[in-house]
Amino acid sequence: MGWRRAAVTAATAALACPALLVAGSMLRTHVVGQRARGQADVEGDVGVIFGAQVIGNEPGPVLRSRLDHAVDLYRAGRVRRLGMAGGVPVTSEGPAGGDDEVPAMVAYALRAGVPRESIVEIRPGQNTREQVSSTQRVVADEAGERVVAVSSSYHLARIRDEARRRGFDVAVTAPRASPDTASLRLYLAHLLTDALAGIWYALPPRVAERVDTSAGSFRHLGLLAMTGDIPWRDALRARPTASSR
Fold it and tell me: pTM here?
């Protein structure tokens, strides 16, 4: 009986530890985001908007909410410039391939009255880690400017943590309202996904970088399945196979 009890205790601990880790990450992600939600008293040199879905060359609803919040900060004098983070490298022959939301973000800011000289393009940025790295290179290191990261509330803890790992600090702020947090189901799905991503990013880079986190990856499609936008079978098709590793 003793070995059985020990086995049950060990199995329980093995299951409980990851669950507690995820729960703690979700709580921290939630707290950071809620404190930054609608916060308009942040100040910096560049407000960097982290890219999201573009539909037909126009920012999707989530990206529009981020852009509108950043434009409000600019108009209030809280930031001097706006940075559009995302997309792919651009060569003399044009974009290097893949989705590039930066032109849609720039066009939207211009229509909102932001002068072109007050807009900086920050590429490449097909996932959060790449966007933070490009922000460091283009804004924090090269220009020595203070960064205000603008994104959805559940996304901010991961952005801030990744920036700190790279040796620079960012202020964070989120729109007060956004379509991706409009319902409890949507918010919890995003919160869980970003909390898991935050844990993964905290692992050694050699480990974390082995997982594809670009648009179209299983992580992003899994989120769409949790929110009911696509069937789970479609998300599972994106799982890496032995031949693709």
Answer: 0.81
